[in-house]
Hints:
mainly beta, Immunoglobulin-like, ten-stranded mixed β-sheet, five-stranded antiparallel β-sheet, 1 helix, about 45% strand
Amino acid sequence: MANLISFDEYIKYNGRTIGRFIMTPGADEDTQKVKIIFLPGKLEGVTNIEYKAKLKTEINAHSEEISFGETTVGDSGIEVEEDLVSIEKVGDFHESNGVTDLDMLEWTSTFKVRYGKEATNVVLHDKFHSGYETANKNVDYVFTIKTADGSTTTINDKDSNDYKMIVGSSPYFNFNVGNLKLPDNIVEIEVKMITPVTRPDYDQYKNEVRAIKVELAGVKDDAKTLYVLATITRKDDQLKKTADIDKDGNIKYTVSFEVKHGQQNIVLKDTLSNAGFNFSTDEKDYTLSPHVDKWMNGKPVINDRTLTIKFSDAIVPTDEGASQRYTLTYTIKPKANVIDQDYKITNTVEINGQKKGHKLDPTINSKNSVSLDWQKMMSSWSIHVNQINRKVDGSFKITEPVKGKNSEFLRF
């Protein structure tokens, strides 16, 4: 057989990647080495594996002998061996001080060297998906490295040389015993990535990782792993928040949350990002659905831009193991001097051990090209103002914006 090239494909089973088929040229150009890797962790409950590979091969017409179809050559048997390295990845929303931030993701990759082997150099590759920050300046990493002497080294200072050395080629992460001045060879690496979401509207986030190169002490060939996938999915019982604008320019927030039997001292806190609005002081602007008599302890407490609501125990289900989902609505009202730009507002609500941000960025005024007539040298434009249906008293004028000075079409 001539013109040998490498062949590498993933083995799929019921939609899962359970292994890998690799074929590489041998020392003799007329032989090939075949390696099949299976991932037992992906095959829970499966006791027998049948795998068939269909390959095309080119016959060398000048060869004295042609043979194919055998599983072995001579007295050699099929070698069954286990990988010397492994990698796993999990993900969840980040928790700090007992509060789960639903706008912050935490990915954890765990790389291990197996069967008493030790690594002198490890390169991991993270395959980032969309919906969250990946730039080093916006992400916090914690690297925990265990070495053969039993010691643990933690690297989390962004300004340190070791941290910069590891993340310098992100999404490739380099762990070299000599460069990092580790006390011994590597046996385990944990990479924790804490990153804010950029698309809070996503219901699911994904991240993949693999070891692309592992140099093992006393082992000739480099080791590597397949990609493993981790997924973070928003759950129906988690905190949710939406916003709407009414004709008076008020913003009505709707917060959906769950209360379980046995919970107590439930408090909601919401903080606005700018000073263009005030939380309503009218108790009628605060409603809970389904309605519960005396659901609030006292009145809403407003301290500058922060709202605090204390719920009474009346909202807590009395039956063992029961839960109840509630929808709370409340209103913020614009100040007299509010401008369009103030409606680009962010705020974060915290309740019942969960935290969720919200960003309102409505299109209030816009200008669009409708048509262009080159013969008449004329262009047509459409201008849309006050698309949030805010009540306008008195007169207003439409002005042509000047780049760098005025971006508003509507002034009143």
